[in-house]
Amino acid sequence: MIQRVKTISKFLLFFALGMFLLWLTTKSFGEKEILELKNLIKNADVQVVAISTIILLFSHYIRALRWKMMIVPLGSIPKSSNVFFAVLAGYFFNLLFPRLGEVMKCTFLSKYEKVPVDKLIGTMVAERLVDMICLIMVILATILSQIERVGNYAGELGNLLRAKLNITPATWGLLVLCLAALVYLISKLFKVSKNHPKLFKLIALIKGMIEGLLTIRKVKNFPLYLLYTLSIWVCYLASIRIGFYGMEELKILGWIPSLSILTFGSFAMIATQGGIGAYQLAVQKTLMLYGINEVTGLAFGWLLWLVQTLILFLVGPISVLLLFILNKKNSTRQA
């Protein structure tokens, strides 16, 4: 019950922050600007939007193939369709509650492919570490390719993060106490008999997660794994670059602005639930660095966010349904 309250409170907090940022992006707009914003989104090229959507879906499919490569060393060869639908379902549940999707996609795949959840969670953690390394490389590429243009903007974000992470002496004291309590609990835990059922289950869970985490070392075709990883981020970049053709005012922009939006937009997706508010603001501010007015920048931010979000709201539930139907048919045939 307490955990459920915490989850709901976290969701409401992120959602409220997103709503505040949405208000912040439009608070200076008059009726004329609001009308222009609506028209820009409404008149966006549908074909371009469709192509960007297909590219994003393709990136999710590549992500599924990459995840499958990490699952195979665990002794199971899951169907690509099951992995793909589990990935899409995970993205959908992430829109509802923070980090819920990571648990759900592992749960779905464990149910239909009979792979232990703890090991799948380990592979998921390894995936997140790889993505974090990729994001760092994208950030570096963005800054180095246009240090004068985005350097100050990145510096402002960095200072903001440092200010938010500023830890007071009282907080340090609390952290030390928590660490001491953790050490005490671990020491107590090891005094419990190794045959104790709860301890046995905990050790088994930790071992399973570690095994899943280390599967990246056992991937058979590592160059292909790297190619999949590169392809995922190229698809992200291409969906933004092609998206520029959806609005007449943005057709002049190239790959460098796309890289900037990918960088700052990635941070924004983490900042609020589903990136709502923060993503639109990040895209708006980034495009203003390239001489695009704030109304057009915000409209494009909304367009990108809607493409990424609405497609997941559509394909997420369908994926859950397909997982059930297709695997029910297979189990019936085997019986």
Q: What would you note in describing this structure?
A:
The chain has 335 residues and is mainly α. It has one domain (36-334). The protein is built from 13 helices and no strands. The protein has helices at 2-26, 31-42, 46-71, 80-96, 100-113, 117-145, 147-164, 169-191, 197-213, 222-243, 255-271, 278-288, 294-334. It is globular and about 60 Å long. It starts with a helix and ends with a helix. The model has no long low-confidence stretch (mean pLDDT 76).
Features:
about 325 residues
The percent of residues in helical segments reads: over 70%
Tally of individual domains: 1
| Terminal-residue CA separation | 40 Å
What's the rounded overall pLDDT mean? Answer: 76
Spatial extent as radius of gyration: 22 Å
The tally of helices reads 13
The string of secondary-structure elements, in order, is HHHHHHHHHHHHH
Structural category is: mainly alpha
The fraction of residues assigned to DSSP E strands is under 5%
Low-confidence stretches: none
Q: Shape, please?
A: globular
Major β-sheet, in short? none
Total strands: the figure is 0
